[in-house]
Structures are given as C-alpha cells and as structure tokens.
Amino acid sequence: VPELAQNSNQLSVTNDNGYSIQWYLNGNPIQGATSSTYEVMEDGMYSVVIMDSNGCSSTSTELDVTFVGTNDIREGVEWVSIYPNPVNDEAFIEMELTQTVEFCLAVSDLTGRIIHREEIVGQQGRFVHGLETRKWPSGIYFVRMMLDDGSLMTRKLSKL
C-alpha cells in the first residue's frame, strides 16, 4: 500500500518501488500527475494509486490537505483582480506587484480537475495576464496562484 507524506505544498509517495503512479483529488484522477511527488494547488482529499508491470494496483489512504488563509494577499502582491467576471472568451488577471513574483497559475473546475496550468513571472508594477476561456464549458472555476514562496491566492471565476 503506498504511503503519502506532506511537506508544505508538496506531497510524495514514500514507497512507490518504481511502479506506475496516478494521483487523485477528491476521488478523481489528476491529469498528468504521474510522478512520485505532486505539488498541491488546492484543498481536498488526495490519494495515489501505484501499479506494477503485471497490472496489480494498490491505493493509499486519503490525505486531507487544507491551506489556511488562501485568499490573503502575499508579500510582493498589493492586489489581485480577475475581470470580467462573469467571463465569455477571455479573462484578465491584473496585479500590482511591489517586486518580481514567480507563480504557478492553475484553474480548476468544481470537481477539482485542473483545466489550465502555467508558470508565470510577473514583473514589478502593474501586471496583466490574459487567460483564454473561450473553449471552457459554462460554470464556476477557481483560479489559484501559487507564489514562489509557497503561498496561495484563490479567486472564483464564472464562465457564461
């Protein structure tokens, strides 16, 4: 049975024995999450399935991961705005940065499935980043920005 360990926002399998790995969030497979470590982008129940070359598999117990203060503004970020909200074709993430900030932008739907992910470097001053939403189905999404210091900011976005 695979065992999970957590260090801040990093989860790892401590005994994968070189088997195939698939991470799950709230019972759903996380697309592309197949390495022995996983960087957590949102709250939820995480688990992992390992499979050997014969097709035998084993599932870990679920690990409840919760971030405290996920909507707080962090060092280097004066404010964050996402507009228009609700959105049709393209949303804009606008930030006022007091320093250069590196962050991972991840967008998930209500089931926790990540539908968009990218690494971004925002330069000091007013920073605006476009987010193509044209192909997304209508619904509610969570836009999460994981800063290079490990802090997390979350904003809700509605798609018409």
What does this structure look like?
The chain has 160 residues and is mainly β. The protein is built from no helices and 15 strands. It has strands spanning 4-7, 10-13, 20-25, 28-29, 37-39, 44-51, 57-59, 63-65, 77-83, 90-97, 101-109, 114-122, 125-132, 139-147, 152-159. Strands 3, 4, 6, 7 and 8 form a five-stranded antiparallel beta sheet that branches. A hairpin with a 2-residue loop joins strand 1 and strand 2. The chain is globular, with a radius of gyration of 17 Å.
Number of helical elements: 0
- The percent range for strand residues is over 45%
Instruction: Report how far apart the termini are.
Output: 43 Å
Average pLDDT taken over every residue: 85
Q: How would you describe the shape?
A: globular
Question: Given the helix and strand composition, which structural class is it?
Answer: mainly beta
User: What composes the largest sheet?
Assistant: 5 strands, antiparallel
Low-confidence stretches: 68-72
Q: Helical residue percent?
A: under 10%
CA radius of gyration: 17 Å
- How many beta-strand segments? 15
Order of helices and strands: EEEEEEEEEEEEEEE
Summarize the structure.
The chain has 160 residues and is mainly beta.
List the helices and strands and how they pair.
Blueprint: E1 4-7, E2 10-13, E3 20-25, E4 28-29, E5 37-39, E6 44-51, E7 57-59, E8 63-65, E9 77-83, E10 90-97, E11 101-109, E12 114-122, E13 125-132, E14 139-147, E15 152-159
